[in-house]
Design a protein that fits this description.
Number of helices: 4
Number of strands: 9
Shape: globular
Strand order of the largest sheet: 4-3-2-1-9
Largest sheet: 5 strands, antiparallel
Low-confidence stretches: 5-27, 118-129
Structural class: alpha+beta
Distance between the termini: 64 Å
Number of domains: 1
Order of helices and strands: HHEEEEHHEEEEE
């Protein structure tokens, strides 16, 4: 009986330890929470809390989009207006409730803030040194990026159009429209022109933009 009681106590202690560990801050991650936000305004507030936790006083949330599988948001620099990084709030699965840097271009092509996702394969090791005008000096201009993006859509998603290009350090992200409604997004590398379609969001639901 004593052994059983001791075993049960050790299990309880182990569970408490795991819970404490899950609540410990890990660079690039925020959470987990017991549930995901039910409203997009709640997701926006959670995104703001995440951005504030990073310690960059110049950053703010510019846009939040709700998709089938996650909420997506853009953090930008208030002083320059340039996009800093893209983030997601997971809505289901083992990562439910986690706020984190978005995978893909945000980690691999983001030259200034890609280190936020370094623990998950980010591009910190290859980051370049930037001044405030650096994003405007990318060989692939906004116009070039729009033309390349539209050419890609014409080939692979006929009938879809681009809208609302966002400049980041090292790349651009652009909304994709179908029948006049947002259906997804893609990114264009600011140095090579490579296209990377964001395939992990699922169906678009709604969005909010902030000043």
């Amino acid at each position: 009986m004593k052994r059983r009681m001791l075993g049960a106590a050790l299990i309880i202690v182990g569970i408490i330890g795991l819970l404490a560990l899950s609540a410990t801050y890990v660079p690039g991650l925020y959470g987990p929470y017991l549930s995901t936000p039910k409203r997009i305004d709640d997701a926006a507030e959670l995104a703001r809390s995440y951005v504030a936790s990073l310690g960059y006083s110049d950053l703010a949330v510019k846009e939040v989009m709700e998709f089938q599988y996650n909420y997506y948001f853009i953090a930008y620099e208030k002083s320059t207006g340039i996009g800093a990084f893209e983030g997601v709030i997971e809505k289901s699965g083992g990562m439910m409730g986690i706020v984190r840097p978005e995978e893909g271009p945000n980690m691999m092509w983001n030259d200034k803030y890609g280190h936020l996702g370094g623990m998950m394969g980010g591009g910190w090791a290859s980051r370049r040194t930037y001044d405030e005008a650096a994003a405007a000096k990318m060989p692939v201009t906004e116009k070039d990026a729009e033309e390349r993006a539209q050419a890609y859509l014409d080939s692979y998603l006929p009938g879809s159009k681009i809208e609302d290009i966002e400049t980041f350090y090292g790349y651009y992200t652009i909304h994709v429209l179908k029948d006049g409604k947002v259906c997804g997004m893609l990114s264009v590398n600011g140095y090579t022109g490579q296209i990377w379609y964001h395939t992990w969001h699922g169906a678009f639901i709604q969005m909010r933009e902030f000043d």
